[in-house]
Amino acid sequence: MRLVLPPAGTLRPNNEHDPLPYYYRPLTGWLYRMRLQIGLDLLPAEGRSVLEIGVGSGVLVPTLTTRFPAYTGADLVLADDLASLVAPRCQARFVRADLLAEADLPAAAFDTVVCLSVLEHIADVDAAARALARVLAPGGTLVAGYPMVSPLMAVLFRTIGFANIGAHHVATPRAVERALRKVLRPVARKVIPPLAPVALALYQCTSWRK
Description:
Blueprint: H1 28-41, E1 49-53, H2 61-67, E2 70-75, E3 91-96, E4 110-116, H3 125-135, E5 136-147, H4 151-159, H5 173-181, E6 185-192, E7 203-209
Parallel strand pairs: 1-2, 1-4, 2-3, 4-5
Antiparallel strand pairs: 5-7, 6-7
């Protein structure tokens, strides 16, 4: 499945930290689009219902609603007019939800969960991992993506104008994966740059099975 990026100007940031502008810039656009693409590459071949945790400005909505007949987009804050991004014939809904609040999302309800660039912002990654496993149906797949939090990444973020990224990235990839391994089975991994050792990767996506 290929990423379908809405034309520039179609989307609106859902908060002051939304990275939306970077998707359309000449130098950073490749990296930001590729991190979504490697996540899409890990999606299962079949499945009806998908939950996107951290829908943000809606960058992935056109692509995911083309692939899945039923889509739920969840975030703490929702951008305006996300419904206009939904592909025809997809049943979609958008909910303000906290991943860590059990009452906000139904249990065992989704074949697939997509959670990109979210887990690194959650201090209690064990609770987040349990919540992701809870909403997955038996046999379901989680696709999770997270940057390689490191001094090099901090320098790169400062270079593109995102200062003090360490204040936002509070969970390391190692902590995220350790938490996910407690509740789900690892299936596959993709990194940026492609084929780079994990230690030298800038971003990685992993898939997990319940």
